[in-house]
Amino acid sequence: MRAQITSTEPFLSGDLQPPPDKSISHRGLLLALLAEGTSRLDNLSSALDVAATGSMVELFGASLETEGSVTLVESPGIAGLREPDGVLDLGNSGTGVRLGIGVATLVHGVSVFTGDDSLRRRPMGRVISPLQELGASIWGRGGDGMLPVAVRGGGLRSGVVHLRVASAQLKSALLFAALGVDGPVSIVEPTLSRPHTEELFALTEVGFDEDVEEQDGSHRVTVSGPTRPSPFSFRIPGDPSAAAFFVVAASCVPGAVLTVEDLYLGPTRAGFLEILAQMGADLVLGDGQVTVQGGSLEGSEIGGRIIPSLIDEIPILSVAAAMADGVTTIRDASELRVKETNRIETTAGFLRAFGVEVMTLPDGLVIHGGLRPGSLRGNRRRVMANLDHRIAMSAAVLGLLAGGVTEIDGVETVATSYPAFFSDLDRLSSATIHLDGAAKP
């Protein structure tokens, strides 16, 4: 699918209710699977990635029913999980497959995972190896553990696992697996990654301990099993990673005013707001709310311990960098190279389509800013999203801001995380949007 963004006088204003948080939705479904009884998830994400996780949950033995905005998950719990009678196809969902591999260690029998072409190119060894340290029987394809991956449940033992990078996906897979281990399992990260699984554990009577090492700042979380989660009720807040596209857009347009409501604002997800403030954005934060007024931005240095809290927002922060005065340097983000695409290269690629001077580094980017709202209104360019949803949405925002006509191929992937993105962009902005030649209503 192709999107065409036409922009002459860039502007953006209004109120945004972002979609439900995708990361929390995945974890909510999987924890509900592990809890015996009925759990209630209000405001579950409708993204295709989350739907794939829902299908996996059903193949493991739970039933899902929707009542209005509430998804009811009826599950036999850990003791009643069943061997899937088919291959678990997670589509494009890296979170779903990595967390699912951890859950599969609790299931008697063999579980086989696969995904779409993009997901089958992403290395799974980074989740397989830590689980194997605890005794898991897992087989992947090739040296990097590519999909398909097979997991034989059982056989895990207590231990301490040190993760090379802070990763909420890897940590969560290990935490789910730890629920079935007889004894303590500790996961040590170089810094705290998103704690959504721990936040949900607190709702389900799963005990855990956390420690921060004073000398190096590393973070340790320990679960002593075996333990059984209790069913729970939870409302999923708005997704800051989705809201970031519009917050950045509004920050770059003088006179723009945008208010985002019902937003998850935990510290491990608000890194992009900290960087925007560092760049000079006018932001006001309230209880689950962000209001931004547009203005001018300055280039910045982005790196270090803040990176895990904004790793998904780097493509859209690169748009802010392109619109800012001066140079922005992003470091310590090598994790981008194993996302849906090599996001260091694909981010540089779409920026160059707009004439932005950018240099790639092994772990980041150097971006020379200087674009102005509407400064490219007489130009036309084409961007390949490479079926990466964040690249597609970031390029669309830059198309709005820079002006002119922007054609983006491969935008169907946006539905994996933010199905209403183009509708929201059409409603809030001055751009004219066509999808596959048909004007947006």
Summarize the SSE layout with pairings.
Layout lengths: L1 E6 L5 E4 L5 H13 L2 E6 L5 H12 L3 E5 L2 E6 L12 E2 L4 H11 L5 E5 L2 H4 L4 H9 L3 E5 L4 E7 L6 E4 L5 H11 L4 E7 L6 H6 L7 E4 L6 E7 L7 E3 L4 H12 L5 E4 L10 H8 L3 E5 L2 E5 L7 E2 L11 H10 L3 E4 L12 H11 L3 E5 L2 E5 L11 E5 L4 H14 L1 E6 L11 H8 L3 E4 L2 E2 L2
Parallel strand pairs: 2-15, 3-14, 6-7, 10-11, 18-19, 22-23
Antiparallel strand pairs: 1-23, 1-24, 3-5, 4-5, 7-9, 8-9, 11-13, 12-13, 15-17, 16-17, 19-21, 20-21, 24-25
Structure description:
Residues 1-10 have a biased composition (Polar residues). It is found in: Cytoplasm. Its EC number is 2.5.1.19. By secondary structure, the protein is an alpha+beta fold. It has 2 domains: 2-20 and 237-439, Enolpyruvate transferase domain (UDP-n-acetylglucosamine1-carboxyvinyl-transferase, Chain); 22-230, Enolpyruvate transferase domain (UDP-n-acetylglucosamine1-carboxyvinyl-transferase, Chain, Alpha-beta prism), CATH 3.65.10. 29% of the residues lie in helices and 27% in strands. It contains 13 helices and 25 strands. The protein has a 5-stranded mixed beta sheet. A 4-stranded mixed beta sheet has the order 2-15-17-16, covered by helices on one side. A 4-stranded mixed beta sheet has the order 4-5-3-14, with helices on one face. The chain is globular, with a radius of gyration of 21 Å. The mean pLDDT is 95.
